[in-house]
Amino acid sequence: MSNRIIDTHQHFWNLSTGTYPWMAGDAMRPLRRHFGPQDLQPLLVENGISATIIVQCRHDMAETRDLLAIAASHDFVIGVVGWVDLESGNVPGQIDALRALPGGDKLVGIRHNVHDEPDAEWLCRPAVQDAVGAVISAGLTFDLLVRSRELPAATLLVRRYPQGRFVLDHLAKPPIAQGFSHAWHEALEVLAESDNVWCKVSGLVTEAAPGASVETFDHYTQIALAVFGQSRVLFGSDWPVCTLAATYLKVKTVAERLVAAQPELAGRFFHLNAIDAYNLG
User: Fold this and answer.
1) Alpha carbon separation from 46 to 140, 214, 239, 247 (Å, rounded)
2) Per the database record, which ranges form the Amidohydrolase-related domain (predicted)?
3) In which order are the strands placed within the sheet that holds 141-144?
Protein backbone atom coordinates (compact mmCIF):
# COMPACT_ATOMS: atom_id res chain seq x y z
CA MET A 1 0.00 0.00 0.00
CA SER A 2 1.49 3.31 -1.10
CA ASN A 3 2.14 6.07 1.42
CA ARG A 4 2.04 8.74 -1.27
CA ILE A 5 -0.47 11.56 -0.67
CA ILE A 6 -2.27 13.35 -3.49
CA ASP A 7 -4.17 16.53 -2.70
CA THR A 8 -6.97 16.31 -5.26
CA HIS A 9 -8.32 19.84 -4.78
CA GLN A 10 -6.32 23.06 -4.65
CA HIS A 11 -6.42 26.39 -6.47
CA PHE A 12 -4.09 29.05 -7.87
CA TRP A 13 -5.16 32.48 -9.07
CA ASN A 14 -3.73 35.79 -10.17
CA LEU A 15 -6.20 38.67 -9.79
CA SER A 16 -4.42 40.68 -12.47
CA THR A 17 -5.53 38.20 -15.15
CA GLY A 18 -9.27 38.04 -14.43
CA THR A 19 -12.08 38.59 -11.95
CA TYR A 20 -13.58 36.22 -9.41
CA PRO A 21 -17.07 37.47 -8.47
CA TRP A 22 -17.38 34.91 -5.67
CA MET A 23 -14.56 36.69 -3.81
CA ALA A 24 -16.68 39.79 -3.18
CA GLY A 25 -17.38 40.91 0.39
CA ASP A 26 -15.39 41.40 3.56
CA ALA A 27 -15.34 37.72 4.47
CA MET A 28 -13.40 36.93 1.29
CA ARG A 29 -10.89 39.76 1.68
CA PRO A 30 -8.00 37.45 2.75
CA LEU A 31 -8.31 35.60 -0.56
CA ARG A 32 -8.08 38.69 -2.74
CA ARG A 33 -4.37 38.36 -3.52
CA HIS A 34 -2.18 36.26 -5.76
CA PHE A 35 -1.80 32.59 -4.77
CA GLY A 36 0.72 30.56 -6.72
CA PRO A 37 3.03 27.54 -6.53
CA GLN A 38 5.55 29.42 -4.41
CA ASP A 39 2.89 29.80 -1.70
CA LEU A 40 1.78 26.19 -1.72
CA GLN A 41 5.04 24.25 -2.12
CA PRO A 42 6.31 24.84 1.45
CA LEU A 43 2.98 23.59 2.82
CA LEU A 44 3.21 20.44 0.72
CA VAL A 45 6.68 19.71 2.07
CA GLU A 46 5.64 20.40 5.68
CA ASN A 47 2.60 18.12 5.40
CA GLY A 48 4.10 15.29 3.38
CA ILE A 49 2.02 15.88 0.24
CA SER A 50 3.52 14.34 -2.88
CA ALA A 51 1.33 15.77 -5.64
CA THR A 52 -1.71 17.92 -6.31
CA ILE A 53 -4.54 18.51 -8.75
CA ILE A 54 -5.35 22.16 -9.53
CA VAL A 55 -9.04 22.96 -9.95
CA GLN A 56 -10.61 25.86 -11.83
CA CYS A 57 -12.62 28.51 -10.00
CA ARG A 58 -13.45 30.94 -12.84
CA HIS A 59 -15.64 30.49 -15.92
CA ASP A 60 -12.88 31.42 -18.33
CA MET A 61 -10.69 29.25 -20.54
CA ALA A 62 -7.88 31.78 -20.03
CA GLU A 63 -7.66 30.65 -16.41
CA THR A 64 -7.44 27.02 -17.51
CA ARG A 65 -4.66 27.89 -19.95
CA ASP A 66 -2.77 29.56 -17.08
CA LEU A 67 -3.25 26.50 -14.85
CA LEU A 68 -1.97 24.18 -17.57
CA ALA A 69 1.11 26.38 -17.96
CA ILE A 70 1.76 26.08 -14.22
CA ALA A 71 1.31 22.32 -14.42
CA ALA A 72 3.79 22.14 -17.29
CA SER A 73 6.50 23.78 -15.19
CA HIS A 74 5.83 22.16 -11.79
CA ASP A 75 6.18 18.41 -11.40
CA PHE A 76 4.13 18.28 -8.19
CA VAL A 77 1.04 19.26 -10.21
CA ILE A 78 -0.11 16.00 -11.79
CA GLY A 79 -3.51 17.12 -13.01
CA VAL A 80 -5.69 20.09 -13.90
CA VAL A 81 -9.48 20.21 -13.67
CA GLY A 82 -10.27 23.04 -16.05
CA TRP A 83 -13.26 24.81 -17.55
CA VAL A 84 -14.84 24.83 -20.99
CA ASP A 85 -18.07 26.48 -22.07
CA LEU A 86 -20.59 23.67 -21.78
CA GLU A 87 -23.21 25.74 -23.60
CA SER A 88 -20.99 26.62 -26.57
CA GLY A 89 -21.87 23.66 -28.74
CA ASN A 90 -18.14 23.01 -29.32
CA VAL A 91 -16.82 21.23 -26.27
CA PRO A 92 -14.65 18.77 -28.27
CA GLY A 93 -12.92 21.66 -30.04
CA GLN A 94 -12.27 23.49 -26.79
CA ILE A 95 -10.81 20.37 -25.18
CA ASP A 96 -8.59 19.74 -28.20
CA ALA A 97 -7.31 23.32 -28.02
CA LEU A 98 -6.44 22.94 -24.33
CA ARG A 99 -4.71 19.62 -24.88
CA ALA A 100 -2.53 21.18 -27.56
CA LEU A 101 -1.03 23.64 -25.06
CA PRO A 102 2.03 23.13 -22.84
CA GLY A 103 0.69 21.14 -19.90
CA GLY A 104 -2.27 19.95 -21.95
CA ASP A 105 -1.38 16.36 -21.22
CA LYS A 106 -2.21 17.07 -17.57
CA LEU A 107 -5.82 18.05 -18.29
CA VAL A 108 -7.72 15.39 -16.32
CA GLY A 109 -11.16 16.92 -15.83
CA ILE A 110 -13.67 19.69 -16.39
CA ARG A 111 -15.74 21.61 -13.83
CA HIS A 112 -18.46 24.25 -13.88
CA ASN A 113 -19.55 26.22 -10.80
CA VAL A 114 -23.03 24.71 -10.93
CA HIS A 115 -24.09 25.88 -7.47
CA ASP A 116 -23.84 29.48 -8.71
CA GLU A 117 -26.36 28.92 -11.50
CA PRO A 118 -29.83 30.36 -10.74
CA ASP A 119 -31.44 27.25 -12.23
CA ALA A 120 -31.28 24.32 -9.80
CA GLU A 121 -31.78 21.97 -12.76
CA TRP A 122 -29.06 23.49 -14.95
CA LEU A 123 -27.35 20.10 -15.20
CA CYS A 124 -30.56 18.67 -16.69
CA ARG A 125 -30.59 21.01 -19.68
CA PRO A 126 -30.21 18.90 -22.84
CA ALA A 127 -27.36 21.02 -24.21
CA VAL A 128 -25.46 20.78 -20.93
CA GLN A 129 -25.98 17.04 -20.66
CA ASP A 130 -24.77 16.57 -24.23
CA ALA A 131 -21.71 18.71 -23.43
CA VAL A 132 -20.90 16.58 -20.37
CA GLY A 133 -21.20 13.57 -22.66
CA ALA A 134 -18.52 15.14 -24.86
CA VAL A 135 -16.29 15.61 -21.80
CA ILE A 136 -16.69 11.93 -20.97
CA SER A 137 -16.06 10.88 -24.58
CA ALA A 138 -12.80 12.83 -24.42
CA GLY A 139 -11.72 10.60 -21.52
CA LEU A 140 -12.01 13.34 -18.90
CA THR A 141 -13.63 13.32 -15.46
CA PHE A 142 -16.43 15.78 -14.64
CA ASP A 143 -16.30 17.46 -11.24
CA LEU A 144 -19.65 18.23 -9.62
CA LEU A 145 -19.62 21.52 -7.70
CA VAL A 146 -23.11 21.40 -6.21
CA ARG A 147 -25.00 21.85 -2.98
CA SER A 148 -28.09 20.02 -1.72
CA ARG A 149 -30.29 22.02 -4.11
CA GLU A 150 -28.52 20.66 -7.19
CA LEU A 151 -27.90 17.07 -6.01
CA PRO A 152 -31.05 15.64 -7.67
CA ALA A 153 -30.00 17.07 -11.05
CA ALA A 154 -26.47 15.74 -10.53
CA THR A 155 -27.91 12.30 -9.83
CA LEU A 156 -29.86 12.32 -13.10
CA LEU A 157 -26.72 13.36 -14.98
CA VAL A 158 -24.48 10.60 -13.61
CA ARG A 159 -27.18 8.02 -14.27
CA ARG A 160 -27.35 9.14 -17.90
CA TYR A 161 -23.63 8.46 -18.30
CA PRO A 162 -22.83 5.31 -16.30
CA GLN A 163 -19.63 4.91 -18.34
CA GLY A 164 -18.36 8.32 -17.21
CA ARG A 165 -16.32 9.34 -14.18
CA PHE A 166 -17.72 11.99 -11.84
CA VAL A 167 -16.21 13.53 -8.70
CA LEU A 168 -18.38 15.28 -6.12
CA ASP A 169 -16.57 18.25 -4.63
CA HIS A 170 -16.74 19.06 -0.89
CA LEU A 171 -19.45 16.47 -0.05
CA ALA A 172 -21.89 18.87 -1.76
CA LYS A 173 -21.15 21.47 0.93
CA PRO A 174 -23.30 20.32 3.87
CA PRO A 175 -24.57 23.31 5.90
CA ILE A 176 -22.55 22.35 8.98
CA ALA A 177 -22.81 25.73 10.72
CA GLN A 178 -26.63 25.64 10.49
CA GLY A 179 -26.91 22.13 11.86
CA PHE A 180 -27.24 18.67 10.39
CA SER A 181 -29.33 18.53 7.21
CA HIS A 182 -31.30 15.35 6.62
CA ALA A 183 -32.23 16.57 3.14
CA TRP A 184 -28.54 16.85 2.24
CA HIS A 185 -27.81 13.40 3.69
CA GLU A 186 -30.66 11.72 1.85
CA ALA A 187 -29.78 13.33 -1.49
CA LEU A 188 -26.12 12.37 -1.00
CA GLU A 189 -27.09 8.74 -0.42
CA VAL A 190 -29.10 8.68 -3.64
CA LEU A 191 -26.19 10.11 -5.65
CA ALA A 192 -23.77 7.62 -4.11
CA GLU A 193 -25.86 4.71 -5.40
CA SER A 194 -24.18 5.35 -8.77
CA ASP A 195 -20.81 3.66 -8.58
CA ASN A 196 -19.25 6.01 -11.15
CA VAL A 197 -19.14 8.87 -8.61
CA TRP A 198 -16.24 9.58 -6.25
CA CYS A 199 -16.42 12.04 -3.35
CA LYS A 200 -13.82 14.54 -2.16
CA VAL A 201 -13.51 14.92 1.60
CA SER A 202 -12.68 18.58 1.17
CA GLY A 203 -14.07 22.07 1.72
CA LEU A 204 -15.70 21.25 5.05
CA VAL A 205 -13.90 23.72 7.30
CA THR A 206 -15.41 26.72 5.52
CA GLU A 207 -18.92 25.31 5.93
CA ALA A 208 -18.63 25.15 9.73
CA ALA A 209 -18.83 27.85 12.38
CA PRO A 210 -15.59 29.80 12.96
CA GLY A 211 -13.15 27.98 15.20
CA ALA A 212 -14.82 24.59 14.84
CA SER A 213 -12.78 21.74 16.33
CA VAL A 214 -11.49 18.87 14.20
CA GLU A 215 -14.02 16.62 15.93
CA THR A 216 -16.82 18.70 14.42
CA PHE A 217 -16.24 17.09 11.04
CA ASP A 218 -16.06 13.44 12.09
CA HIS A 219 -19.77 12.82 11.52
CA TYR A 220 -19.58 14.20 7.97
CA THR A 221 -16.42 12.38 6.95
CA GLN A 222 -17.85 9.13 8.32
CA ILE A 223 -21.00 9.70 6.27
CA ALA A 224 -18.86 10.13 3.15
CA LEU A 225 -17.12 6.85 3.87
CA ALA A 226 -20.37 5.06 4.69
CA VAL A 227 -22.21 6.04 1.51
CA PHE A 228 -19.34 6.01 -1.01
CA GLY A 229 -17.21 3.22 0.46
CA GLN A 230 -13.45 2.85 0.76
CA SER A 231 -12.82 2.89 -2.99
CA ARG A 232 -14.61 6.19 -3.76
CA VAL A 233 -13.43 8.78 -1.22
CA LEU A 234 -10.59 11.23 -1.93
CA PHE A 235 -8.52 13.68 0.08
CA GLY A 236 -8.62 17.34 -0.95
CA SER A 237 -7.50 20.47 0.90
CA ASP A 238 -9.42 23.21 -0.97
CA TRP A 239 -6.37 25.42 -0.40
CA PRO A 240 -6.25 28.45 -0.27
CA VAL A 241 -10.02 28.78 0.30
CA CYS A 242 -9.61 26.63 3.41
CA THR A 243 -7.37 29.30 4.95
CA LEU A 244 -10.47 31.36 5.66
CA ALA A 245 -11.18 28.88 8.47
CA ALA A 246 -8.20 26.60 9.05
CA THR A 247 -4.56 25.88 8.33
CA TYR A 248 -3.48 23.28 5.82
CA LEU A 249 -2.39 21.12 8.76
CA LYS A 250 -5.84 21.25 10.36
CA VAL A 251 -7.50 20.25 7.09
CA LYS A 252 -5.14 17.31 6.76
CA THR A 253 -5.79 16.37 10.40
CA VAL A 254 -9.54 16.25 9.73
CA ALA A 255 -8.82 13.81 6.89
CA GLU A 256 -6.39 11.73 8.94
CA ARG A 257 -9.03 11.20 11.62
CA LEU A 258 -11.11 9.37 9.01
CA VAL A 259 -8.43 6.76 8.41
CA ALA A 260 -7.00 6.57 11.94
CA ALA A 261 -9.07 3.55 12.91
CA GLN A 262 -8.83 1.94 9.46
CA PRO A 263 -5.18 1.82 8.36
CA GLU A 264 -6.15 -0.20 5.29
CA LEU A 265 -8.10 2.83 4.02
CA ALA A 266 -5.17 5.26 4.00
CA GLY A 267 -3.58 4.14 0.74
CA ARG A 268 -6.85 4.31 -1.13
CA PHE A 269 -8.08 7.56 0.39
CA PHE A 270 -4.85 9.51 0.05
CA HIS A 271 -3.55 8.11 -3.24
CA LEU A 272 -5.02 5.19 -5.16
CA ASN A 273 -8.61 6.44 -5.44
CA ALA A 274 -7.35 9.65 -7.06
CA ILE A 275 -5.67 7.57 -9.76
CA ASP A 276 -8.96 5.81 -10.47
CA ALA A 277 -11.14 8.91 -10.32
CA TYR A 278 -8.97 10.98 -12.66
CA ASN A 279 -7.50 8.14 -14.74
CA LEU A 280 -3.98 9.21 -13.82
CA GLY A 281 -1.06 7.42 -15.42
Assistant:
1) 31, 19, 14, 12
2) 6-280
3) 6-10, 51-55, 77-82, 107-112, 141-144, 166-168, 197-201, 233-235
- Contact between residue 180 and residue 212 where contact means Cβ atoms under 8 Å apart: no
Q: Does an H or E element contain 51, and which?
A: strand 51-55
Grouped pLDDT means (10 residues each) for the chain, 281 residues: 85 94 96 98 97 97 98 98 97 98 98 97 98 98 98 98 98 97 98 98 97 96 98 98 97 96 91 97 77
The candidate with the shortest Cα–Cα distance to 218, out of 189, 271, 261, is: 261
pLDDT confidence of residue 263: 84
Length of the chain: 281
CA 148, 204, 275, 130 dihedral sign is: positive
Q: Quickly count: other Cβ atoms within 10 Å of residue 67's Cβ.
A: 27
DSSP 239: B
Q: Residue 1's pLDDT is what?
A: 40
Measured CA to CA, the distance from residue 91 to residue 89 in angstroms comes to: 6
For each of the domains in the chain, give its residue range(s) and CATH number, in order of start: 6-278 (3.20.20.140)
d(CA 90, CA 86): 8
Compute the distance between CA of residue 218 and CA of residue 103 in angstroms, rounded to an integer: 37
* Cβ count within 10 A of residue 127: 11
Q: Which of 103, 110, 177, 172 is nearest to 137 (CA)?
A: 110
With the C-alpha atoms ordered 200, 208, 122, 116, is the resulting torsion angle positive or negative?
negative
